[in-house]
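Need tokens for this chain, all 815 residues.
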Amino acid sequence: MGWVLTLLFVAENWLAALIALPLWLAVGATAGWLAVRLLHKSRAHQLAESRLESVQEAATEAILRIDGDGLITSWSAGAEELYGYPSDEIVGRPLADLLMDSESVPTGQRLTDEVMQQRRRDGSVFSASVTAIPVESGETTVVARDVGALRRTTEQLRNAKATYRSLTEHLPVVTYVQSFEGERETTFVSPQIDWLIGYTADEWLADPGLFLRLVHPDDRDRVAAARDPVDPTKAVRLDYRMVSRAGRVVWVRDEAVTVLDESGQPLCIQGYLLDVSERKNAEEERKMLRAAEAATAADASERQRKVEFVAEAASVLASSLDARATVGQVAALAARNLAESCVVDVLTEDGTVTRYAAERAASAPLSAEPEAHPEPAVLDVIRSRRPELSDEVLRVPLSRGSRGVGALTLVAGEKATHYSADDLPWARALAAMIALAIDNSRLHTEVEARSDASKVLTHVGEGVFLLDRAGLIQLWNPASAAITGVSAETAVGKPASDAIPGWHEVSERIAVGPTSDAVSTSTLPLETDRGERWISISGVEFFGGTVYAFRDITEAHKLDELKAEFIATASHELRTPLAAVYGAAQTLRRHDFALDEAGRERFISLIVDESDRLAAIVNQILLANQLDVGRLDLEMEPFDARDLVERVVESARTHAPSHITFDVQVADGVPPVAADKDLARQVLVNLVDNAVKYSPDGGGIELGVESADAAVVFSVVDEGLGIPADEHRRIFEKFYRLDPNMTYGIGGTGLGLYICSELVERMGGRIWLESEEGKGSAFFFQLPTTSPRTALPKTRELAEKERAASAPPAQTDGR
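Here are the structure tokens for all 815 residues:
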């Protein structure tokens, strides 16, 4: 082109142009080449700029440019994320604003992963790895990334590795890691492999085939197949045996799982080996124990069956004294449970052997039928008293002590279990029970003859004891123990003088005679632990010693004494008014003794008063007799307690001495009494007369009435002599008198308080006292009211039982 232009415009110089033509061509070609190069460089630069911008937009690191003056000219999204500055705020500012050390600005110099302290927009400081790359334009591209988080992550990773290593090295299991691909090469095994099988971890890793060689040959194929799972997500769990370096068989539990990456692809296989030898050995022992237990259970079941048979046989044998019947039942029982046939042979008193019982099982063959007579082997067993044992025959002797009774024969046959030495104990026990039953049957006849006498001695109400010729007690029946308080264990075998207190003095006064004569009894006192007892005793001599029979007559003796005392007292009490009546009557009959009207009236009045006194004594005796024989009739009707008390006091005032005063205290709201009014009056009159009699020095007598718990309580309180505490218990006894010796000149029959007690109890009430010697007495008795809770009248027998069973509250006795 240049050549053409030159030729056209500078034609006149064409020669020169022609000469310059090559030069122009060369210059044009050079210019064209340069233009093309510049175009390519421009395009490459634009592409690089485009790529750099893409990298800046996509990179997580901070990418920025600085010019030669250290001013920021470009700012990536990563830089905005790292430093917190938006692009429009930071571009144009010096890089030194981001650095803690302004002198370290990388202007025009190359840096590679230089760690510098950086500052964020919020003022926080962090460590960054800086790479600076100068470019042709004079600018410098700076790449920065936060290495603080990387360091923390690296440190955490390092700690995690150390923790994992420590865990794997200290766990009581062997951990291992295998590659997933290829031959499943073991890449890691913990040091515990040494104490497990005796090989070190280095030896294990150096020899890939060592593992399978150490697996027990019987488990090798199973383990090889199980450790190559088809499904990598499925865990492998199996138990197998390994052989250690020392040759010891070790049971291990192998559990392995495939480790997957985030995309679910297998990375490796991780697992552990646990020594379970003890558990496996324990399982084997348990299996052996179960087998032994099963065998023992079967044996125990068989033993239990035999024990139950023996127990049932014992029950049958004990059910009756008819030994032939019970032994036959036991033989049949044995033939059903333990044998095909059972035979019992017994030695009689004349020395012959008889077949006592013979039974055969229903299912036994005819050949098992027992013989009709004892076999020679039976005689041998009876004579030698030694058992005979074989698989089919078990024969044991029947013995009682050193004496042979017979023999028991059991035949197993074809269906029953064969016998062994273990069967001897129960067979001997059965034979002993059969021998005992037979012996008891023989002795029963002899015992029956003596049992009646024994029963009489045991249940007779009289004491019976036997002294042998040496004076030792050989028999002491229960009645003897009850009367004397000396037990049979204490008395039997001891001299009578040691067992019976005061026997020397007592025995000399006992009448003793031969069995053919009627012996009179002697009444004697005997000292016992319960105090003095009176006994009626006699003795009969025979060739073996002396038999004494006695009975306790203490109560009868006391009653006799009381009766004698009562007769004496009653005689005295009757004699006094009789004497007065007789004397007054004799005086009135005298003609030589003139009496005026007043004198005659005084004697008549004396006769009337003493007659009333005499009638009262007789009435007391008659009433006591009626109470004893139970012929007293009760007329239960409600009455007013206040009215009854006031009438009794009004009557008492007319007869009481002048130094006795009466006071009546009746509470408000006292309900009517449901009892026999006349008998209640009799009780109250007796108590008032008693209070007057035992107040010889005078004083006040207070009568009270109050209600309490569906009952009305009457009280008579005096200021007289009082009653000693040790006399309270007997004060209501029949014929008992507080002053029997008339120390205070106080008479009486001893029936007053006894009658009061009996009458109150017959009317459904109770009576008691409170008294202290020298301070007077207070007698109380209560009777039921007419309320729904009123108690029914008590019979004499019930009243006596209640009085004997328990004492009433407070002081429940009187005088």
